[in-house]
Amino acid sequence: NWLKGEHNVRFGTDIYYQALNHTQPEISGGTSYGARGGFRFGSGPTQIQGGPTGNQYNAFASFLLGVPNQIGRLKLAEPYTTRNWQYSLYVRDQWQVSPRMTISYGTRWEYFPVPTRATRGLERYNVNTNQMMIGGIGSVPTDLGVKVSKTLFAPRVGLTYRPREGAVLRAGFGITNDPYALARPLRTNHPAVLNLLLDAPNSLAFVSRTADGIPVIPDADLGNGIISVPSPITVFTLPDDFNRGQIRSWNVAFQKELRWGLVGEAAYVATRQIDQLGFRELNWSPIGGGQAGRQLNQKFGRTGQTRLIAPIGDSQYDALQARLERRFSNGFQIGANYTFSKAIGIAGNANSDGALRINIPEYYALNRSLSDFDRTHNVNITNITELPFGPGRRWLNDGGVVSQIVGGWQVNNILSFYSGTPFSVTASGTSLNAPENDQRADIVKPDVEILGGIGRTNAYFDPLAFKPVTDARFGTAAFNILRGPGVASWDLGVFRQFQLPRQMNAQFRVEAFNVTNRPRFSNPGGNVSNLRLNPDGSVRDLNGFATITSTQDGSERQVRFGLRLGW
Hints:
Helices cover 5% and strands 43% of the residues. By secondary structure, it is mainly beta. The protein has a domain at 1-138 and 178-235.
């Protein structure tokens, strides 16, 4: 710190070092098989050629005969590692302009080098040659030839103004560089994790026999740092010039003390994420192109996912917030807050690390929708009450047996009510025939009726408001146009304070989350192609479409006990 008159200047540096040493292969690379390997048994090898399509019983017969239609395995040749450095310099001045006004301003410089492994660089897929570049081997530079900016600045400014006693106005604006860690997606690139995936030549054939086992995966030869890549595996790559993008945030809030010990606050909060990082699928296919139409299949015969880590678009968040609180006094506190908000993003992604749902460049705009985490309304009511009994309290404070039993109790309550999250109505992509692109349903009724049904036979929304797409185009229903059921929850805490000898104390606590065990339902199934209709157009079987059949993970009632000692 440096103090000079009305200025308080703070400056310094931050240096972060992150290391990962991983000794177990992860499930990745486009297959669900782990290091031990696995088999997949389909219905084709045992169905009657020219007869009806096979079913699960045919698949079981394939299992009994030991004729899989796919086998796979992962191999970690050596423990894979990542090393990630981040550097920054910052300076901030807090200027006391007057007794009523304070201005804080400053900036931060940041540098994010390309991550490496412990003994060499990471790997980067070259889309021009269909080869993998191994950083630090042969002529390949450790940074893989990727240029990152050394001029990333993040300025910010804040204002606090007290127009009169008991009132304060706050405002601020700041820019943050996207801190997304590149080592996260790149850490399993080929050949760090080796993938074996063998498929039968067609749906009616089998690839081998289980008695033959799973072939051994040979170690990769890094050679001169440029190696070939198996066609079906998933790889990640970077552009020559990597742009991190930035997050711009601003807010304005007014707080005022009211009567009866109340404090009220109203605020506007906004965020804009510019050039949000995500995954662009380079091996997409145009409408009607099928597997043969994949961009890299045409050039190299490559069929696996090929993900470029790059900006995928912009996102935004706007919220009006209101808060009313009675500060803790005489053993009682209560508060309530309400947020009215809207979040719009790319393909519903909440932050960097998501993928586009439609990867054909001329249709990128169709990815824009409400974010998956968007909740229009959010209300919370909190309360802390120290029961007015026992020593030092208003009643039963004589220190007797009854006083000791009823004294020292505290009850906490949290009531929460918030809107459900958005979801999409999708459809089979058979007619679209464009791998790496999600299909949307056609919307028939613009005003979709929410029926509120729960269970396999009760529709949550009007199932006849949508229909499948039967020709080669994207459906007319945008992503995330419907919203799932809202949530109401009550959390309760009961604490008991005990005084112990030698100025020690103990607190026993019981905390119950979702006390009433009210279900928090998941969003309904959204694939309209599952719907089964009668010849007259009426619903014969919802078949999972528009129905809610599960609850959110971890939403059931939970009770926790605790004991804390203090001295």
